[in-house]
Amino acid sequence: MASTTSLVVAQILPAHHSHPKAHTSKHAPVALPTRRQCLLFLTATTSLKAMEMPSRAQDIPLFGLRKSLKKAEQEAELIVKEGFEAADKGIVAVEKGVETAEKGVEAVEKGVEAAEKEIETAVSFSGLAQAGVVAGAEVIGVLITTSVVNGILGPEPQKS
Q: What superkingdom does the record give (predicted)?
């Protein structure tokens, strides 16, 4: 930017020509810029300076909304980041809980299988023994139903 400023100044202000007569005892008159040149120079330098400096509207209290908006965005990003971290920790804890539950289910399955084997060995009879048990259960069932039916109907009154 400094080179463009000096370039503009060189274009606006006329160059001083040295005359052969200027080296004599008389001093050469200095050419001053005209009003138009001064106005153009002032406008050019002002516009160049304005381009060099970024605007700082966020520093003005009225326009400080951008600054507070940036702060709010940063805080929101921080909250979201903390939320993701907490969710990751929760997922890890749930995974551990699931693994523990799976181990518990496996242990219960082993217990059920062991109980089934014990029941099979305790109840294992020969075919003749099973038939005897079934016949005894049927006899007991007939006796119970007979007593229930007699209890409901009761003895029949005798007619004279």
A: Eukaryota
- The set of long-range contacts for 117-121, using a CB threshold of 8 Å and a minimum separation of 24, is none
Q: Which residues contact 13 (CB under 8 A, 6 or more apart)?
A: 33, 37, 41
Torsion, CA 131, CA 133, CA 137, CA 139, rounded to 10: 70
Sign of the torsion formed by the C-alpha atoms of 112, 114, 119 and 124: positive
23 touches 74 (CB < 8 A): no
CA atoms within 13 A on the CB side of 30: 3
- Mean pLDDT, the chain, integer: 76
- What pLDDT digit, counting tens, does each position of 44-71 carry? 787 767 666 666 665 566 666 777 788 8
- Using CA atoms, how far apart are residues 37 and 8, in angstroms rounded to an integer? 11
| Alpha carbon distance 57, 113 (integer Å) | 77
